[in-house]
Predict the 3D structure of the following.
Amino acid sequence: MTIYTGKDYQDVSRKAANIMSAQIIMKPDAVLGLATGSTPVGMYAQLVEWYKKGDLDFSKVTSVNLDEYKGLSGDNDQSYRYFMNQNLFDHVNIDKERTFVPDGLEEDSDKACAQYNEIIRKTGGVDMQLLGIGGNGHIGFNEPGAAFEKETHCVDLTESTIKANARFFESMDEVPKQAYTMGIKNIMAAKKILLMATGTSKAEALYNSLYGPITPNVPASILQLHPDLTVVADEDALSLIREKGLL
Ligand code: GLP
């Protein structure tokens, strides 16, 4: 595991974008595993800036996203497909036909998940998987207690996650209660993992994930077993790890 420290959110965004760019430059037809959430927004903005300067070419890149809310269409401004279009895909020369997000409108969960696993398999495997982390240590939508051996599956979101997402919807009724997410098995199959974390609200989850016991109660703790894990985090997110003298 390698940990890179950023001064602040912007610094973390730039460092993570540098790592992602290096992947694209070294392997122009890379398969990128992408993530949503507020954490990677600055990193995507940096990638768009470098693309506009002519430093990056996404024309051969394939992407597979971690998760999507069940019931939301790609046109819904709260869907993760919409997020990806807005933050990255609409601004770079990626072929949209090669950008994959689970199909939120597929009501048959088994079908949606089997289809997505097949899509991932057909890409030949993820070269670099980007991850944010939930305050409770969740990755993608693999909430505490999720089985490590699962591939893409449908999850009931926890109360804390539903509440955290509520700010993006007009009423509690509209907040999705389920999502399709890559499982831990899919995530661990990526050749490289890039985990980003910023802010004090992530300090405990980051400490537990990187230095605590490996347990499904802290889904990100499985990352300790990944052979190529890079963490980019700001001082706030690393504060507990520093306090314990581990960095
Ligand atoms: C959601 C997403 C995760 C993300 C997490 C943290 O639950 N499914 O992929 O890592 O939120 O979000 P944020 O980056 O906004 O803190």
